[in-house]
Structure prediction request, 390 residues.
Amino acid sequence: MARVDLTGADIIDAHCHPFRSQDLLDRDPRSFETRCMFLGTALISSNHANLEAAAFAEELTETTMFGLALRRWIAGYLGCEPTKEAVVAARDAALRADPPGYVRGLLGSEQVVAVVADEGYPQPSIPRADFEAALGGVPVHRVGRIEPWIVEAREEGSFDAAVQRFEAAMHAAGNDPRLIAYKTIIAYRTGLDITDPSSADAAAAFDRWRGDGWRETREHAKPVRDFLLRRAFALAKEHDRVFHVHVGAGDPDVNLMHASPKDAFAFFVEQHDIPILMIHSGWPWVAEATYVGTVLPNVYMDLSELVPWGWGQIDWSLEMILGAVPAAKVMHGCDESSEPEMFPVSARLVRQALERVLGRFIERDFLSVGDAESIGRGVLADNVRRLHGI
Prediction:
């Protein structure tokens, strides 16, 4: 296979979630591997997950491809035997000796030079400065999620007052130069098939929603959320920011019936004058997302969830994506939301996958080595920089 070498390329992680050093120290060190798995993450983040299944999830980690690779790769980094007991002990000792130093070393081992953090999870939101300190000074760029602002705005006594409070939160975030994007997880709440309710319809739904105890129904909540999302897009344009949209699977809270790229397509077509980043590349509907990214010039794709959890699908997915979507619109992300080991393992995984896939393109005489390495560096970092102006 033709050799594509991306070992010296910087990596910017386009999608992750913040933590504090104390958060890492407070968790049970024996289950850190499971917290890195998709199943383990869902047990932590979902309101519907059965926490009594945690012990079974620990067992399942032992036969999860990502879990087995994580253990071997972290053992290599720590210089210990690739057994659960040895890795847990070595990792815990290194973490407790110097939490920020350990985390910075992890990121540095794969040249992760900056991260883009979705502040919507966990709640209450962790300030950028706290996360940057936990990363040992690796730069953090903010993404403001609109859903917590909607929850705060609901405290107002009327729909009009709620809209004003929501818009004030949007403006306050947009006035911070370190905020590079807004984000929505409306796929978790009422679905990506965004309607266009009038102000009067949304106001009537707001009263019904409140009377229903704020349950997330498509009858009452959806008109309000769709109305506010449209306002959010208008304000994002005003502040010249990218909009990140969760598209695809998630933990058991996601509205999976209305979370695919095809659900969002009509809305994305309307929003042709603002850059939109499809977080998770629509995984597991990667083919749908690839089509959307191919035909809509302002819609971009990040690889998180596909990387690292769609483990066996990464090579063929990258081949499909990079074979159709302009490569400048594709970027790496890991969706780290619990443990810092997610950063280097995901970065290593996507770097190696890019080298293999781009090498096959060279063998087919589609690309020169120079073109392939330029595309690879773009996916790893340069595209995030260009899109967000960082």
Remarks:
- The chain has a mean pLDDT of 95.
- The beta strands are 11-16, 112-118, 140-145, 179-184, 242-246, 276-279, 299-302, 304-305, 330-331.
